[in-house]
Every structure is written in structure tokens, then in C-alpha cells.
Amino acid sequence: MHPVRKQRLILVSLMVVLSSAAIGLVAFALRDNINLFYPPADVVAGKAPMDRSIRLGGMVVEGSIERSETDLDTTFWVTDYEASVPVRFSGILPDLFAEGEGVVAEGTLDESGMLVATQVLAKHDENYMPPEVAAALEGKTAPQGQPVLP
Amino acid sequence: MWAFIHKLGSPPWFFGFSGTLVRWLLPVTVTLLLVGAVWGLLVAPPDFRQGNSYRIIYIHVPAAVVALAGYYVMAFAGAVSLIWRIKMADVTMRAAAPVGAVLTAIALVTGAIWGKPTWGAWWVWDARITSMLILLFLYLGVVALFEAYENKTAAARACAVLSLVGMVNIPIIYKSVDWWYSLHQPASIKFTGESAIDSSMLYPLLLMILAFYCLFALTLLLNMRAELLWTHRDSGWLKQLVGDT
Predict the structure, then answer these.
(1) Would residue B7 count as lying in a domain?
(2) Contact check, Cβ <8 Å, B83/A24
(3) Distance (Å) from the C-alpha of residue B14 to the closest C-alpha of chain A?
(4) B107 located within any domain
(5) Which residues in chain B have Cβ-Cβ distances shorter than 8 Å to A121?
(6) Is B5 on the interface with A (CB under 8 A)?
(7) pLDDT the model gives residue A142
(8) Do B197 and A125 touch (CB under 8 A)?
(9) Distance CA B129, CA B150 (A)
């Protein structure tokens, strides 16, 4: 290769490597801000701020959803299978919201450690299958992991 | 091999070669898109959780995949332009940017339309979605930067640097769902091991991804040909070609 082109090749490679390293370090330093939500374990451990709005993400504990008879109030527990946090929400829940499914709730923590949510989003996983296949799997697989209720 | 690469750098030869390629690629792309769309939208079964609304996957995922791959095409052309100073590399880089921008916009818009019924929100500042928005700005930045210069050689160099620096965003987009907590689901198609999407839904999806790759190649070639026609409008070879037909 021509020496001038070789030099340019080295310069271009250096540019890509150094800019990647710089952006990589920035992303690493900001990793806590890039995370969309806190897992329940972090909230229970007191790592989430109490004074401002946070997002909590995890799975809705099976059998924990309690709906009010008179209004739209709903309470449920969110778990990451290490710890669980109770959530209270008043409003319309997304269609995919269900027990044992992923959820992201935004709101503030009250003194008792309950998240008073202003928005609840359903988080679906990467699995896609026809209903027949899901029904066939239902009969075979045992429930995975035991949610922890304090 | 090297002779072929050398010929690619020649505008008259490339114009003729791309013309043949376009004639083949056009029917292939239309067929793949039609078969993929009918298979995905009508034949594939509904999802056990999302019902029929998941079918937007057949536009969303192909557009996003090719938007990422297209960035590498643009950045590679940029590197060739910086190192070897080949004019055709500038043309490729410039032609790829608007196509990539449109694909990224399609991925973002279909994602928002999909997000509303499934998550319950049009937009969330999640790592995957935000990094995808940065990709859109990188593509639009290359388009704008090229237009900002009077001198097109200087413009091509600035665009090449921008696209090479922005390349770091591609692995970030790809891995964002694994590195950080996000609302966006992790990848359903896995290169190693069994995919998390049933094969009856996976095959039409793979076909649509292939169709979008062909669509990208086709629009890229057509863009490059339009650019060549404009920049060489006074060249002898082009006048001769137009005179012939």
C-alpha cells in the first residue's frame, strides 16, 4: 500500500478507536442515568431517591393485584425475585398488564415504601408464539422462580 | 477481484453496471416485499399475548435492522473516501444517508405506533429508543453537512469523519437492551441458539428483512445513478449514452 494511504488508514482507525473509547467511557459513567428504571432490590435497599419521581421495573407478583370496587384504584406488588415493592395506581392500565408479566411504573415513593404511580407501562418480553403453542407449553412448564413477599 | 474494485471507481463503468443490477434487483425486491408482507400480515398466526397488533414487527424490525446495517455501508464508504480519495465512495456515502434516515424514521414511527397499544405510551426515553433517535440525527447530520459546504470535496471529508465517529452508536443501539434496564424487549432473533419467536412467525420476518436489504440496495443504487447523472451532465460518456438510447 502507498505510504500516504497507509498513514491515512492508521489515522482513520485511530479516530474510530479513540472516539469509540471516549463515548464508551461517557456511557459507562452515565450508566445509572441511562437505565430506564430501578429494580425493586435497589428501591428496597434505599438506592432510589425519595424526593423525586422514579421508575420502578420488574414483574407483577402473581395474585397481588387488588382492584377497588368503587373506582380505578389498583394496588399490586412488583418483584425482581430478590425483593418486592408495592405500587398504587389510579387510572387505566395497559392491555398487556397482567400478573406474572413485566411492568414499569413511574411515581414517587411514600414514607411506607409504596410507589404512588402516575403512569404504568406494560413491558413485554421477546417471546412470540401462536396461541396453540402457548397453550401446549402451559401444560408442560412449571412456574419459574418464587416471588419474594416481605 | 482488484480489477473489479478498480472498475467500480469509474463513473461510466459503474453507471452501466448499476443499470443492469437495478433491472434485476427491482423485480426481486418487489416479489420479496409482496410475499413477505402477505405471509407476515395474513398467513402468520396471531401472537398469544399481543394478538394481531404484533404484526407491525414485519415493518418495524426490517426497517431497524437495515437502518443499522446501512450506517456501516455509509461509514465504510466514508473510510474509503478518506483513505483512497475515490469519488465514487463520496457518491455512495451521500446516497446512503437519506435512505438510512428514512428507514430509521420508519423504525421510530412504527415503534411508537406499536408502543401505544402494547406498553401504553407512544414514546419513552429508553436506551434503545434514544440511541435510535441519535442515529436519525446522525443520518440527517450527514445530509445537512454535505449541503453546508460549497466545496464538495471538503464536504465529503467532513461527512466521512462524522459518519466514522457516529459508528460507535451502532453497537450501542444493538446492545442497549442488554446493557441497561429498558422498556424495549431484548432481541427475539438470536444468532446463536433458538430464537424466542416461533418459526411460523420467524420465517416471514427473515424474508421481510431480506426484502428490506434489497430495497436498501435498490434505492442506494438509484440515488447514486441520479447523483452521477447530475454531476456528469456535461461529460462526453453520458452524452454518448443518452444519444444512443
Answers:
(1) no
(2) no
(3) 23
(4) yes
(5) 119-121, 124, 183
(6) no
(7) 45
(8) no
(9) 34
Whether A10 has its CB under 8 Å from any CB of chain B: the answer is no
Q: Which of A39, A97, A125 sits opposite B181 (nearest CB)?
A: A39
Per-residue pLDDT tens over the stretch B127-172: 999 999 999 999 999 999 999 999 989 999 999 999 999 999 999 9
Q: What is the pLDDT of residues B17-66, one digit of tens each?
A: 999 999 999 999 999 999 999 999 999 999 988 889 999 999 999 999 99
Tell me the percentage of chain A whose pLDDT exceeds 90: 43
The reported pTM is 0.90
Any domain includes B2:
no
Domain housing B44: 14-188+197-244
Q: What is the largest distance, in Å, between two alpha-carbon atoms of chain B?
A: 62
Question: Minimal Cα distance from B127: which residue of A?
Answer: A34
Contact A16 B187 (CB under 8 A): no
Nearest of A120, A103, A122, A115 to residue A49 by alpha carbon: A115
Query: Which residues partner with A117 through β-bridges?
Result: A89, A107
Contacts of A65 (CB under 8 A, 6+ apart): A74, A75, A76, A99
What is the spatial distance between Cα A49 and Cα A59, in angstroms, rounded to a whole number?
Answer: 21
B188: which chain A residues are within 8 Å (Cβ-Cβ)? 126-128
CATH number for the domain harbouring residue B102 = 1.20.120
**Is A94:A35 a contact under the CB 8 Å cutoff?**
no
The domain total for chain B is: 1
Q: Kindly indicate the confidence band of residue B236, based on its pLDDT and cuts at 50, 70 and 90.
A: confident
Classify residue B215: in a domain, yes or no: yes
- ipTM value: 0.83
